[in-house]
C-alpha cells in the first residue's frame, strides 16, 4: 500500500481478520496520526476526524455523493456481463445524487415516508418483539440476531412496502449480494455469482413496481407513484428511478437496522450496569440507542468525492478525488466526544454522531431505525431482564468496508421453567 501526503506508517487493512473483528484500535490510530491520507490499494483518500467528515457531509457544493454506492472493487468483465445479461439497469437516485436532482428525489420520498406511517407500525413491532420473548422464555437462550434482528427490520419494511412475509428469504439474500458488490472485496467467482443474483434482485424490484401500477394500494410504493399529485409539483419518479429506489430500500431499509439491534444488545449487555439501567428506567433507552450509534455504528465508513481541490488538515486533495469517510473514527473523536472510548448511555451529546450521515443526505430511514430499536429494547428489557451474553460465544462480522454488526449474538437468561427438558447451549 502506498501512502502519500499525510501518510501513516501502518497499513490500513479494512478486510483483515483483526480489523473486521475490532476496527476501533486501527481507527483510533489513524485519527490520531493523520486527518487525511491516500490509500493506493483502495484508491481513496481516507478522512478520519469528526469536523472534517461532518463538513464533507454538509457541504454538497464542494463534496459530491455521486460515488456513495459505486462498487468498492470495480466489477470484473464477467460480473459486468452477468449484470447486463440479467437486465440490471439501476440509475442514481436519492442516496447517490446531488442537488438539484437530490432535492426532487427527497421531496417526493418524504411525501410517502411520513411520521404517521412510521407511528402506525408500533403494534406490529411490539407484537413481534413480545412474541420472540414469549416463544423462547422457557428455553433460556437465543441468538438475538438470527432469532430476532435478522428478520424483524425486513418484516417491518414489508409492512411499509406491502410485501408478503414469504418474500423474506428472497429479499435478505438479495440484500446480501448487493452488499457484497458495493462494499466487499469479492473474488472473480464471487463477483459473478453476486452479479447474477443482483440482476435477479433487480427484476424482483421491477415486478414490485409493475404490480403497483396495475393494482395500487396504500403502501409506500403506491404512494411514491402518486407523490407528484400529493406535493403539487406534477414531477414524478421515472420507472427506472422507482425501481432503483426500491433496490436501495430493499437493502438499506433493513440491513443497517439489523446491525443496530445486534450492536445494541451486544454493547448494553457487555456493560451490565447499562442493561440494568434501561431495565429499571426505560426512559434511558433513546439515549442508549444514540450512544450505541456513536460507539459502534451500523455504518462505519461512507464515500463521497471532491468537486474541487480541497485541503483537509493541511493535506492537499485534488479535485474529483474519491473519499472514504471513517465514520467509526469520527464518532470517537475526543475533539467532539469527551472520553470517547467510554460507553455512556447518558452522554449528553451522543446524538451528534454521524451514523446516519448529516445534512441533505441524512438517512431517510433514521427515524424508523430509532423507532424500531426503541420498541424492541423496551419489550425485551421488560420481559427478559436477566438477559446476558453467552460467555462462550465468539463473534464474527461480514467482510464489508462499510456495514458492521455481529453475524450472530448468542444470549442466555434465567428460564422461567427450571425443570425444562431443553438445556441452554
Can you lay out the helices and strands and say which pair or pack?
Blueprint: H1 17-21, H2 24-33, E1 36-39, E2 44-47, H3 50-58, E3 63-64, H4 77-85, H5 101-112, H6 115-119, H7 122-136, E4 141-143, H8 145-149, H9 152-161, H10 168-183, H11 188-214, H12 220-231, H13 239-252, H14 255-270, H15 272-280, H16 285-295, E5 302-306, E6 310-312, E7 315-317, E8 322-325, H17 327-330, H18 366-383, E9 388-389, E10 410-412
Parallel strand pairs: 2-8
Antiparallel strand pairs: 1-2, 3-5, 4-10, 5-8, 6-7, 9-10
Helix pairs in contact: 4-11, 5-12, 7-18, 10-11, 11-13, 14-16, 14-18, 16-18
Percent in helix: 40-55%
| Overall SS class | alpha+beta
Biggest sheet strand order reads 1-2-8-5-3
Task: State the fourth-level CATH superfamily.
Answer: Cytochrome P450
Summarize the structure.
49% of the residues lie in helices and 8% in strands.
Describe the structure in your own words.
With 425 residues, the protein is an alpha+beta fold. It has a single domain (17-412), classed as Cytochrome p450. The chain has helices at residues 17-21, 24-33, 50-58, 77-85, 101-112, 115-119, 122-136, 145-149, 152-161, 168-183, 188-214, 220-231, 239-252, 255-270, 272-280, 285-295, 327-330, 366-383; strands at 36-39, 44-47, 63-64, 141-143, 302-306, 310-312, 315-317, 322-325, 388-389, 410-412. The strands form three sheets. A five-stranded mixed beta sheet has the order 1-2-8-5-3, covered by helices on one side. Helix 5 packs across helix 12 (220-231), helix 14 (255-270) crosses helix 18 (366-383) and helix 16 (285-295) crosses helix 18 (366-383). The termini are far apart.
Amino acid at each position: 500500500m502506498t501512502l502519500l501526503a499525510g501518510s501513516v506508517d501502518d497499513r490500513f487493512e479494512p478486510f483483515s481478520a483483526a480489523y473486521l473483528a475490532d476496527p476501533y484500535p486501527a481507527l483510533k490510530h489513524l485519527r490520531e496520526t493523520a486527518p487525511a491520507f491516500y490509500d493506493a490499494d483502495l484508491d481513496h483518500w481516507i478522512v478520519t476526524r469528526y469536523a472534517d467528515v461532518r463538513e464533507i457531509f454538509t457541504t454538497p457544493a464542494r463534496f459530491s455523493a455521486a460515488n456513495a454506492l459505486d462498487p468498492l472493487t470495480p466489477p470484473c468483465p464477467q460480473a459486468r456481463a452477468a449484470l447486463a445479461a440479467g437486465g440490471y439497469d439501476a440509475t442514481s437516485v436519492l442516496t447517490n445524487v446531488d442537488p438539484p436532482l437530490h432535492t426532487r428525489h427527497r421531496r417526493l420520498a418524504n411525501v410517502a415516508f411520513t411520521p404517521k406511517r412510521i407511528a402506525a407500525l408500533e403494534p406490529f413491532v411490539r407484537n413481534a418483539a413480545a412474541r420472540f420473548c414469549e416463544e423462547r422464555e422457557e428455553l433460556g437462550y437465543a441468538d438475538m440476531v438470527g432469532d430476532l434482528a435478522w428478520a424483524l427490520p425486513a418484516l417491518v419494511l414489508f409492512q411499509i412496502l406491502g410485501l408478503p412475509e414469504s418474500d423474506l428469504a428472497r429479499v435478505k439474500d438479495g440484500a446480501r449480494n448487493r452488499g457484497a458488490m458495493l462494499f466487499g472485496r469479492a473474488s472473480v467467482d464471487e463477483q459473478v455469482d453476486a452479479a447474477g443474483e443482483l440482476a435477479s434482485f433487480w427484476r424482483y424490484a421491477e415486478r414490485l413496481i409493475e404490480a403497483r401500477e396495475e393494482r395500487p394500494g396504500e403502501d409506500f410504493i403506491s404512494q411514491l407513484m402518486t407523490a407528484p399529485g400529493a406535493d403539487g409539483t406534477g414531477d414524478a419518479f421515472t420507472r427506472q428511478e422507482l425501481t432503483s429506489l426500491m433496490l436501495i430500500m430493499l437493502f438499506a431499509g433493513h440491513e443497517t437496522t439489523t446491525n443496530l439491534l445486534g450492536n445494541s444488545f451486544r454493547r448494553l449487555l457487555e456493560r451490565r450496569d447499562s442493561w440494568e439501567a434501561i431495565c429499571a428506567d426505560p426512559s434511558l433507552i433513546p439515549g442508549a440507542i444514540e450512544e450505541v450509534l456513536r460507539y459502534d455504528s451500523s455504518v462505519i465508513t461512507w464515500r463521497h468525492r471532491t468537486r474541487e481541490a480541497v485541503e483537509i488538515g493541511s493535506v492537499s486533495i485534488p479535485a474529483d478525488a474519491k473519499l472514504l469517510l471513517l465514520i467509526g473514527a469520527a464518532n470517537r473523536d475526543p475533539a467532539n466526544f469527551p472520553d470517547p472510548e467510554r460507553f455512556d448511555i447518558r452522554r449528553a451529546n451522543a446524538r451528534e454522531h454521524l451514523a446516519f450521515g448529516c445534512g441533505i443526505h441524512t438517512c431517510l430511514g433514521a427515524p424508523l431505525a430509532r423507532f424500531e430499536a426503541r420498541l424492541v429494547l423496551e419489550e425485551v428489557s421488560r420481559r427478559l431482564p436477566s438477559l446476558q451474553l453467552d460467555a462462550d460465544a465468539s463473534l464474527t462480522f461480514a467482510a464489508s468496508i462499510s456495514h458492521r454488526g455481529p453475524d450472530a449474538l448468542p444470549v442466555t437468561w434465567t428460564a422461567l421453567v427450571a425443570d425444562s427438558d431443553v438445556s441452554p447451549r
